[in-house]
Write a structure and sequence with these properties.
Elongation Factor Tu (Ef-tu), domain 3; 5 domains; six-stranded mixed β-sheet; Rossmann fold; single chain; 32 strands; eight-stranded antiparallel β-sheet; Alpha-Beta Plaits; about 600 residues; alpha+beta; globular; 13 helices
Length: about 600
């Protein structure tokens, strides 16, 4: 155990975590040059396409130190985006130390601080590493000042490297061995292993990723999950190289996987403790705190026959993404589906894409909403994340919506445009500081509902991609909220309903009606698309009808002949409108989700 080191790489987005992981893999010879590619640990296509890490990935690296000793370095590469911070917190529970990576050009940023606090909560050894020192804009002296003033760490402990060209990587490997402590635990004690991740394999069942704290586990052992007392027989244990590598045993201090023929996905819960059935440990290991979703949306299958497939896919997906929650839901327009909770808009986007790619599903997402709080006349407090559950307006005394503190880092030349955007989104209490010449850090308090609509896209546009955006929830604040309904041909489409601020209701209603007008196919009669608050219509668009020229055969003669034919046509259209129902294509639902700047 003295020769094992468990560590993680944490940082803000794009500070070079995956590149440094690639370099460590190459230096230790864990990967053959023939199969090497960038982002070695990012195994999903979606991660490679977007250039981001979504899942934490573990790998064991063999390393011979300068003193001739051979060590096993268990590296866990983590995501940097705020929407996947839960992945980071779970990974840190399996480590004794972290490399805190800081970009030499950008310096300390929002997620650098957030991840530092996570590491401190777990009482880990922290090694600050300044990356990208090869950049022309690199300013190591300024970053050292930030390490001292903003992070409260000793700048003398820092390491400097360039993960891109390999400078300083040998020093990092030596520092991991010298400064990160070996794991603590007793191989003779009863087994206690923490599940920090899992995924479903169609051939082997559920593959459990765990960190063994005490005892050991081997093939043939009978294990018990302490959360639900289910018992399984171990088929295989091993550790992670680029693929799973089978081993005889996993013992205290090691990170690896267990396959035990777990067929039902619901049997495994992330944060559970695994122990031996015949010799259990005294008490479960402390798991992970429950995650609170921020953004909510409903997912429906396009074809109602696919409901069972969607249900199975969500159950398997939940195993691999512990921050995702869902429950059954139904809609008059779209049938049976699920109400899902996400940690942010990027998380929602990734979930949708992974469900479509990995499980071959065709799904519709409803308009994303946040969780509002209503105080009713009888004193009850009601939390509503689904517009379908909006309470009777006559019974509401006070309505509140969640506010966030948004932190934005951007070049100062874009300051005016970003401040205008924030004020337009009801931003208040601005705060500004200049961490370095030419760069400004801007802080605003604004409603979360304004951010989930299209704020991030607009922010990236006005800063031409140079701005970084991060947020954290602060509290609920009183707001004038109303329920905006969309009516098509006089019928309410519940999947398009939104809870909005009264000042924004008309703009949102006009936008939704105009979008639907472009997407709903024309019929033989006019279709009215309306936005309504209660019984008050606030916006309208009309899909014009196809018109057959019934007077084409009349040439010359009395005008009354033509009028008679037109009146007959008018009666027929009225009858059709009464019995006809308008089918809304999926593209119409997606069109309403898009911002007004996307068109």
């Amino acid at each position: 155990m003295q020769n094992i080191r468990n560590f993680s790489i944490i940082a803000h987005i794009d500070h070079g975590k995956s590149t440094l992981a690639d370099r460590l893999i190459m230096k230790t010879g864990a990967c053959d040059l023939r199969i090497y590619k960038d982002q070695m640990l990012d195994s999903m296509d979606i991660e490679r396409e977007r250039g981001i890490t979504i899942k934490s990935h573990a790998i064991s690296l063999p390393y011979t130190a300068s003193d001739g000793e051979t060590y096993t370095l268990n590296l866990i590469d983590t995501p940097g985006h705020v929407d996947f911070s839960y992945e980071v917190s779970r990974s840190l529970a399996s480590c004794e130390g972290v490399l805190l990576l800081i970009d030499a050009a950008q310096g300390v940023q929002a997620q650098t601080l957030a991840n530092l606090y996570l590491a401190m909560e777990h009482d880990l050894e922290i090694i600050p590493v300044i990356n990208k020192i090869d950049l022309p804009a690199a300013d190591v002296e300024r970053v050292l000042e930030q390490i001292d003033s903003e992070l409260g760490l000793d700048p003398a402990t820092h390491l400097a490297c360039s993960a891109k060209d390999g400078t300083g990587v040998d020093e990092i490997l030596e520092a991991i061995v010298r400064r990160i402590p070996p794991p603590r635990g007793e191989a003779e004690d009863p087994l206690a292993a923490l599940i920090f991740d899992a995924y479903y394999d169609a051939y082997r069942g559920t593959v459990i990723n765990c960190r063994v704290f005490d005892g050991e586990v081997k093939a043939g052992d009978t294990i018990r999950f302490m959360f639900n007392d289910s018992i399984y027989r171990v088929e295989e244990v091993g550790r992670f190289l680029l693929d799973r590598q089978k081993r005889d045993t996993l013992s205290a201090g090691e990170v690896g996987y267990i396959i035990a023929g777990v067929k039902t996905v619901s049997s495994v819960s992330i944060g559970d403790t695994i122990t031996l059935d015949d010799r259990p440990c005294a008490q479960p290991l402390p798991g992970f705190k429950k995650v609170k979703p921020v953004v909510f949306a409903s997912i429906y299958p396009i074809a109602s026959d696919d409901y069972e497939d969607l249900s199975d896919a969500l159950e398997k997906y939940k195993l691999n993404d512990a921050a995702f929650i869902y429950e059954k839901d139904s809609s008059a327009a779209l049938g049976q589906g699920f109400r899902c909770g996400f940690l942010g808009l990027l998380h929602l986007d990734i979930v949708q894409e992974r469900l479509e790619r990995e499980y071959g599903l065709n799904i519709i997402l409803s308009v994303p909403s946040v969780r509002y709080r209503f105080t009713l006349k009888d004193g009850a407090e009601l939390y509503v994340d689904n517009p379908a559950h909006y309470p009777n307006p006559m019974s509401i005394i006070k309505s509140e919506e969640p506010y966030i503190r948004a932190s934005m880092m951007l070049p100062d030349r874009y300051l005016g445009a970003v401040m205008t955007l924030c004020i337009d989104r009801r931003g208040v209490n601005s705060n500004m500081r200049y961490p370095s010449p030419g760069r400004v850090e801007l802080s605003y308090e604004m409603p979360l509902s304004e951010v989930i609509f299209d704020f991030y896209d607009r922010f990236k546009s006005v800063t031409q991609g140079y701005g970084s955006f991060d947020y954290d929830l602060i509290d609920y604040r009183t707001s004038n909220l109303v329920l905006l309904d969309i009516l098509v041909n006089g019928e309410k489409v519940d999947a398009l309903s939104q809870i909005v601020h009264r000042d924004r209701a008309r703009a949102r209603g006009v936008l939704a009606c105009d979008r639907l007008k472009d997407e709903i196919p024309r019929q033989m009669y006019k279709i009215a698309i309306q936005g309504a608050i209660g019984g008050e219509i606030i916006s309208r668009s009309t899909v014009s009808a196809f018109r057959k020229d019934v007077t084409a055969k009349c040439y010359g003669g009395d005008i009354t002949r033509k009028r008679k034919l037109l009146e007959k046509q008018k009666e027929g259209k009225k009858r059709m409108k009464m019995v006809g129902s308008v089918s809304i294509p999926q593209s119409a639902f997606l069109a309403v989700l898009k911002s007004d700047k996307d068109s």
